[in-house]
Amino acid sequence: QSALTQPRSVSGSPGQSVTISCTGTSSDVGGYNYVSWYQQHPGKAPKLMIYDVSKRPSGVPDRFSGSKSGNTASLTISGLQAEDEADYYCCSYAGSYQVFGTGTKVTVL
Amino acid sequence: EVQLVQSGAEVKKPGESLKISCKGSGYSFTSYWIGWVRQMPGKGLEWMGIIYPGDSDTRYSPSFQGQVTISADKSISTAYLQWSSLKASDTAMYYCARTRSIAAPPVIWGQGTMVTVSS
Predict the structure, then answer these.
(1) If you ran DSSP here, which 8-state letter would residue B76 be given?
(2) DSSP letter at B43?
(3) What is the pLDDT of residues B22-81, one digit of tens each?
(4) Using CA atoms, how far apart are residues A80 and B112, in angstroms rounded to an integer?
(5) Longest CA pairwise span in chain A (Å)
(6) A46 and B CB contact within 8 Å
(7) How close B19 gets to chain A, by Cα (Å)?
């Protein structure tokens, strides 16, 4: 199976919004409402930020939001903060297994 | 506290076998799935496979089917990832993570086990 496609990097100034796309196929992103997003800081384990396309786990700021249209899911970070600088990965159920995206580095200028 | 504690870093030679572990605590180990995720140096996350310790139901990502073996011993709340013959390309950080179903995202992650394969 192929990894989901994400932009290699996105950047924004503090307070701005950035959106990360995650493109798959009808066999993964488009076929299920089981898209999640992870944040990973260097040397740390991934942290779940969004699940089931648009739900936020307890403790995740509402600056993080998710959506999906067809075979593409998106993560939007509003009101960008310095601590949001990290790698972000989407993940989708693909029928009996899950598949991650290629990863996006978010830089806060 | 719910946590997953993984075994320590390993340095092995090509062709050697290896089994790393992931011990769950603070919850009913047989009621959740445990998945394994690979992260090669400087690269992204890759889903390897998942096991349900309650009945050892195991699913593999197509890329890892036949390359590794996932198992669990529910009597000691521990899941395993093993290789019969390591390659240099197996050098990576390996994470275990707990999830409530094969479709649900892992929420609780282990600290990772670094495996280095070098001659």
Answers:
(1) G
(2) -
(3) 999 999 999 999 999 999 999 999 999 999 999 999 999 999 999 999 999 999 999 999
(4) 28
(5) 40
(6) yes
(7) 21
